[in-house]
């Protein structure tokens, strides 16, 4: 008997029929003697629908007062889910109780729409578990120290589940979703993508941060920090398959690098269409310029990702960087009002139609020539690379958005990811 956390994503909770299936699956685990905590997302499409309504009424502003109400609104999707799932479990004859984030409580900071979990009180949950109940906790939401409801950013239910598992020292956190594990790349883009039976924590972290939305990056960070055993698996297998089979299916995130994993130089390909590129042309090439530009951007609380500065000619250079597309207009505004007046140039160019494609693998540490293989594969497809950034276990390129799928497929082939692992 163990304490297990299950997380069910939006598609898995998408209708009463599917919720009944989730209840049957959870009931199977509970009847086998496990203490069960379940963290569901809002029903599929619901968070988008709610945020769409908000946009109809308040399209322009994004200040704190607005963000607070967005969280108040968006968090309701998960409240519907927990109530329905508790009812479905009770209908199966399994005692169950549901809680919103503030009732647990799941405490977060006050950064509305992207709050971070600070602590989770396990007392109430443990009491219910001891009383033999399945406990269902809303994904995605928490409460700040003033009692305001917060949300954890899109895809945040993954993080709720892993954080709950860490707080309860659960034996395992199982992330049930609409694919049967973590693949070499998004199987919706590359049908030949293969499921990985294991992926190292570091690779998963890099894949998530480079755009693979199968797990929210903060959930992977939590799993690493608290060493939570984490598995991604399908919610669409028949609910009554043997628990032993279910518990070993999907993809396990591992914390030790085994030899087999070392063999694959590149384990996966991630991509991200959420960024925009901004260039300032003809910037004077002198100490302090990067700080002058990016300092002002940072002061506006805008995160910068890839940065390049060209070799200078005649004491002038071009400076480019990427930001999240949602921050694009604000960044240009900051540059125009706070930066260019003192730079001696006002040539700002922007491009929102870019994407970033990354190859990820811990094998890159010990192999040379991986980046050049990547660049060759892209050049053979006639794809121009606009920016490059690397870390120990990944290489990313920024390219024209229209070549994204072509690039991902070409790289998938170039690194033999469609071939079964040796
Ligand atoms: P959920 O609603 O269950 O949280 P998400 O839509 O957030 O589901 O995440 C699952 C989706 O992630 C899959 O349907 C798939 O399209 C996408 N995805 C992106 N990259 C990968 C990958 N490397 N492996 C598996 N799925 C991926
Ligand atoms: N419902 C939230 C979203 O759509 C959280 C989640 O699904 O993980 O982003
Ligand atoms: Mg998700």
Annotation keywords:
single chain; 422 residues; alpha/beta; Carbamate kinase; VC0802-like; 2 domains; eight-stranded mixed β-sheet; four-stranded antiparallel β-sheet; 14 helices; 20 strands; 25% strand; globular; binds adenosine-5'-diphosphate; binds aspartic acid; binds magnesium ion
Describe this structure as you would to a colleague:
This protein is of the alpha/beta class and 422 residues long. It folds into 2 domains: 254 residues, Carbamate kinase (3-Layer(aba) Sandwich); 148 residues, VC0802-like (2-Layer Sandwich). Helix content is 35%, strand content 25%. The protein contains 14 helices and 20 strands. An 8-stranded mixed β-sheet has the order 3-6-2-1-9-11-12-10, with helices on both faces. The chain is globular and about 80 Å long. The model has no long low-confidence stretch (mean pLDDT 94). The structure holds adenosine-5'-diphosphate, aspartic acid and magnesium ion.
Shape: globular
How is the biggest beta sheet arranged?
8 strands, mixed
CATH topology (fold) name of the largest domain: Carbamate kinase
How many structural domains does the protein architecture include? 2
Tell me what portion of residues adopts beta-strand conformation. 15-25%
CATH architecture of the largest domain: 3-Layer(aba) Sandwich
- Terminal-residue CA separation: 36 Å
Q: How are the strands of the largest sheet arranged?
A: 3-6-2-1-9-11-12-10
Helix content: 25-40%
Number of strands: 20
Global structural class: alpha/beta
Determine the CATH superfamily of the largest domain. Answer: Acetylglutamate kinase-like
Ligands bound, unique: adenosine-5'-diphosphate, aspartic acid, magnesium ion
Give the count of helical stretches: 14
Please give the radius of gyration in angstroms: 23 Å
| Average pLDDT reading | 94
What is the level 1 CATH name of the largest domain? Alpha Beta
Stretches with pLDDT under 50, minimum 5 residues: none
